[in-house]
């Protein structure tokens, strides 16, 4: 891999890697280190990437392994992880940045999903992977990925609708008490 | 990779009862991530590690310049296929802080990231000793070093020298005297960004924008990205044959393109 290729790859994938690490429980203060580690591995092992999966899928696998390694190391240091893995894939990592309500709502909807469905949803709907890529990344058959995806979509969409209804109801209630 | 089976994305089928902004939140998720400053810092640290890795017998084979990394990464990031919108903001910020006269100085960095054939030739025949001599992990944050990035290897490596010199001269000519139409890279970018943003919802219009781009900026630095967009648009319009033909031509013209994996399925007619 040449330096220009590497830089381009870095620029293209850094946001994705950052979000994967974040969702997989790497504490915010360690995201930079995590990113560095992922891209160093990507560089070192690029020759082994044979295009059997997509580049993004391949990088996803590396990022997840780095995240697991970092969590394990933190555990050995007896560090208390603010983002424990189970909740980490949910709303917390982005809450600080979620200035707008809709984004917070999306994060809340994601937090409601079981982890397996959530990851499929995020990778397909939000990270724009193909079903084949998602299936390869999560090591599940495509039909399983699709099945989880449909379940997750319905749940997220319903969550958003319910929240809109609740908001309307609240508004009416305030108006009534106000008048 | 069979994308034909893929259902339309949820944000392209918004529900009438969703609260305001929810669709945008779905679409905007992928633009969250580190700031340009953090990106620059991380890439520098990775490069330093790669530099020492190469010095210890690793496979890094290029003169290593860190000049204007942040700018290079930021602009290349603009063309991170699929993340165009978010990066536009960063460019906008840079554009605001830098006087417009510096746009010419920025252009070479753009080309560093998007002219792999030149670099590729340099890297290939490098012998171990040439490599060791060429590795320079020390970052120097000047924006002037980009010209020497191309000039230096020309003297170092013997084979293919003429061919490479020609390519180098071509690139230098392009960057040194940009066509009047390409004077403002932001205009170029804006058009492709718009095309990308409507790719899934209105591929026909996206394709029209791409064609407009090709007409206005025939020698764009972002030719590869433009063609990848065009191929994707054609595929989405159901013109599999035409997309496959374009994809094959693309792969032939840019065998080492970073977009290769994205284009290959189209070339196989999928």
Question: What does the model show?
Answer:
The complex is a heterodimer of chains A (179) and B (270). With 179 residues, chain A is mostly helical. In chain A, helix 3 (55-76) packs parallel to helix 8 (131-138). Chain A has helices at residues 3-23, 31-44, 55-76, 85-88, 92-95, 101-112, 115-126, 131-138, 142-178. Chain A is 75% helix and 0% strand. In chain A, 47% of the residues are buried. Chain B is an all-alpha fold. Helix content of chain B is 62%, strand content 0%. Chain B is globular and about 55 Å long. The termini of chain B are close together. The interface between A and B is large, with 61 and 71 residues.
Q: What structural class is derived from the secondary structure elements of chain B?
A: mainly alpha
Strand content of chain A: under 5%
- The overall average pLDDT of chain B, rounded, is 63
Tally of contiguous helical segments of chain A:
9
Order of helices and strands of chain A: HHHHHHHHH
What portion of residues of chain B is helical? 55-70%
Radius of gyration of chain A equals 19 Å
General shape of chain B: globular
Helix/strand-derived category of chain A reads mainly alpha
**Rough shape of chain A?**
elongated
Biggest interface between chains = A-B, 61 and 71 residues
Approximate helicity band of chain A:
over 70%
Q: Terminal Cα separation of chain B, in Å? A: 8 Å
Proportion of residues in extended strands of chain B:
under 5%
Sequence stretches where pLDDT stays below 50 over 5 or more residues of chain A: 81-99
Number of strands of chain B: 0
Mean pLDDT of chain A: 82
Largest sheet of chain A: none
The major sheet of chain B is characterized as: none
Instruction: Outline the low-pLDDT stretches of chain B.
Output: 61-161, 171-182
SS summary, helix count of chain B: 14
